[in-house]
Every structure is written in structure tokens, then in C-alpha cells.
Amino acid sequence: MxxxxxxxxxxxxxxxxxxxxxxxxxxxxxxxxxQLTGGPAATFTGLFVSLEDITGRHExxxxxxxxxxxxxxxxxxxxxxxxxxxxxxxxxxxQQFVSVQQxxxxxxxxxxxxxxxxxxxxxxxxxxxxxxxDRRAMQAFTAxxxxxxxxxxxxxxxxxxKAIRISPEFAGAYTNLAVYHIHLxxxxxxxxxxxxxxxxxxxxxxxxxxxxFAQFHLGRVKDALASAGAxxxxxSGYLQAHLILGTILSADxxxxxxxxxxxxxxAGKFESARTNLELLRRAR
Length: 284
Hints:
Elements: H1 3-11, H2 13-16, E1 29-37, E2 48-53, E3 61-64, E4 70-76, E5 79-86, E6 92-100, E7 106-110, H3 126-130, H4 135-149, H5 153-166, H6 171-183, H7 187-201, H8 205-217, H9 221-234, H10 239-249, H11 256-266, H12 271-283
Parallel strand pairs: 1-7
Antiparallel strand pairs: 1-4, 2-3, 2-5, 5-6
Helix pairs in contact: 4-5, 5-6, 6-7, 7-8, 8-9, 8-10, 9-10, 10-11, 11-12
């Protein structure tokens, strides 16, 4: 395996993976602004957004979405929510987990493109909706976030394994468990856990990129390229997928022109893409 490519992949680990966040404080968030993306402004008319507290401690907050896709929540208690976008008929258009924390000011929701599969970014599969995480599983998940924020990935992984024993269909727990195992260099476990998350939630760019990362470190380069390519087929604008695909392709001189095209797209966001681009251009 190309050592330079491996080092570069390691640099963008934190940016690529969906993983831990600090625990919320007790105070309310005075103003949380949101923005819908992924569709023309005309499609935002008549949509609503709600935040449903998964612990049941707070009431559901539901507001209209403005014509430009913007929305605002005020005096929102910190905690873990399901954010749901619905149309006039009450049909769910998009849904995702949101951890509202003190100091948080913005949240973005990407709508799936027309014709995309129901498990495209910003949605949750019917299987997930049918098996919401148990309260105890969410407590273990939150404990894992706290531990991982201190770099205690072994302990965080143990908490997520507890969450999975309680709620075996908790796709987000598998996703984060894979992340912690990547941090610990346990790439075989990470690949298995990411595959389980994909089985439950359906294909999505985040898990496919995490799977590509694990596969690459296992020496399964062809599989890693396929996983990263699948992420881009779901969302051609997903910069993390361009980053990982370009970085893997850069290891092979025969594919470096293609690598440069992907890294150029990712360079505006990721320092590692800019660094790798400079190296590739010097090697031409």
C-alpha cells in the first residue's frame, strides 16, 4: 500500500466520519436557524419541519418552512431530536437525527433528489422508522459520545455495543461504532459494522465512505473504489466521497488524472485534498 496515500487518508478521518459531538448543556438554545438544500426553491413551498424529542421529555416543535427553504426554532431545549420535513399531506420528505447543543446556531437538511431511492441522504428507511431506538439505547449512545469526545474510543465502543444489544436495529449506533473501531485500527470490525448500518438504513454516502475507508486499509482497493463510487452515485455533490475516491485513485499513476478531477472538487473544503493535489501536480 502506498504509504503517502495512507497518511493522507488518515488526515481527513475526522472530516469524513459521522461521529461524536459534545454533550448538550442544560440551557435552551435561543435561536436555531435551519436551511433546506438539495432542491429548487419552488419545491420548498408548503413544507413543514418538526423536531420531535426522542426522550419524550419535551413537546414536538413544528413550524412552516419559508419559500427559500429557511426555518427557525426559538427557545429550544437542548437534547436529541428527530428532525422531520413533511408536506401538506403529512408525508415525510426527509428525516434525520439532530443533537441540539448549547452554542449550536445552524442545522442543514438535504432533500433527496427527485427519482432518488428512499434511502438517499436526509432520509431514514422504513425499517428504522419501525424500530426506533429504546430510551436506554439512546442513553448508551449519548454516553458513547461523551467518552469519544475525550478520546476514550474503547469505552465508547463498549457503550455502543450495549446500545446495539438493547436496540439491534439502531443504525446510527453501528455507524458510530464503526467510526470508533476505525480510530482504534480495527478495520475488519469497522467494515462489518458499516455493512450492518447499510443493511438497516439502506445505502447512504456517509456509511459508504466509511466502508471505503475501512476497505482501503484492509487492502481491498477494488472494493473501496466501488464503495466510494456508490456514494457519488447517490450524491454526486458529496465532497467527502470525492475526497476519498480521489485519494485512493492517487495511489495508482494510471488513475492520477481522474484522481486530480475528484480532488479538485474536494479542495475547497478539505486541506488534505489541496495537499494531495499539489503532490500530484508536481509528479506530472
